[in-house]
Specification:
With 150 residues, the protein is of the alpha/beta class. It has helices at 33-44, 70-84, 100-110, 123-130, 134-149; strands at 2-3, 6-7, 12-17, 22-29, 54-62, 91-95, 116-119. Helix 1 packs parallel to helix 2 and helix 2 (70-84) packs parallel to helix 3 (100-110).
């Protein structure tokens, strides 16, 4: 996608895995509010979404996301609630990098819609909480991240 004078890779990717019944989302680098918004639109309009009740958001290699403000999180939580209401019960794990406070704010904002949501220090504990085998998820996350960096 054009970004100023350069082409910039999309910093968010996801996979809807029907076998795992999980949507796996990976952020890599500094994500802007516009990129987060486009990702949400793309994912929620994907006919494969959701493949089941589980969501794993790995933001562990995301940048500090300096442009994602409290207001941005409020707006995205509002939009997410609008999409999530018709999806049935969901369980979401978020693995932030050092932007722990932003992840906790988002968790608090959508906990009325997604009753089972938790923020984790690393993806493998999040996998255990979701009932996923970390050895199965690890290569998926690596592939998504590699795709973002290519």
């Amino acid at each position: 996608m054009p970004f100023g004078d350069k082409l910039r890779a999309v910093p968010i990717n996801y996979r809807c895995d029907a076998e795992l019944r999980c949507t796996i989302i990976v952020w890599d680098g500094d994500v802007t509010p516009e990129e987060w918004s486009r990702h949400l639109d793309r994912m929620t309009s994907d006919p494969a979404f959701p493949p089941g009740p589980l969501l794993l958001s790995d933001l562990s290699t995301a940048g500090e996301a300096p442009r994602i403000s409290t207001e941005t999180i409020d707006e995205m939580a509002h939009r997410w609630r609008g999409h999530a209401e018709g999806l049935g019960p969901l369980q979401m794990a978020i693995v932030p990098n050092s932007s722990w406070a932003k992840a906790k704010q988002f968790e608090g904002e959508i906990s009325d819609t997604i009753r089972r949501i938790m923020v984790f220090n690393e993806p493998w504990t999040a996998c255990a909480w979701l009932g996923l085998d970390a050895d199965t998820v690890r290569p998926i996350i690596a592939e998504l991240r590699a795709g973002l960096r290519s």
